[in-house]
Amino acid sequence: MLSTEKLNKLRQDIVFGTQLGDETFTFHTTWGIFSPREIDEGTRLLVDRLEIAPGADCLDLGCGYGPIGLFMARRAPQGQTLMVDKDFMAVEYSNANAKHNGITNARAQLSNGFDHIDPALQFDLIASNIPAKVGKEMLSLILHDAKMRLRPGGRLYVVTINGLRQYMKRNLNEVFGNYTKLKQGRSYTVALAVNAR
Prior knowledge:
Layout: H1 4-11, E1 14-20, E2 23-29, H2 41-47, E3 58-61, H3 67-75, E4 81-85, H4 88-100, E5 106-110, E6 123-129, H5 136-149, E7 150-161, H6 165-176, E8 180-184, E9 188-194
Parallel strand pairs: 3-4, 3-6, 4-5, 6-7
Antiparallel strand pairs: 1-2, 7-9, 8-9
């Protein structure tokens, strides 16, 4: 059985500093949020492929503690970045991490996919590290809703496990009419679809 001291230590925030691209961040996380001790391989692969205009309005879908969204906010200082997650702890830590890193153009809120995002909001860029266990029904909703929320010429970047690579290719082609594989790593693939409407 763990001692009270060890349990109390487990309850403290996990804090680590890291580089994403050429940006430096300090992240506070906790047990129960995805990849709490370090930036996972899929997120790094995705962030390295993002092309972000300085005035872009961005969405991080399934933000966890905020690494993708806060990176986008730093790269798009004249735009606004929204981070959403269905986990209230993820939202809490994303908002705290925006403060810890002095980022004022990003905020996080609860939402299951696009369900609770203001219907008036449109985005230039949507990025998501999609969990493998999200299910095909939710994936379909995410892709269709992303297309509706992207401005003309807007881009959807997704990173998935390699096992979902062909599924994403089929579905992005079906929904967006285009698909580009940007990078396939050891375990993850980054794909891009453009809203050409």
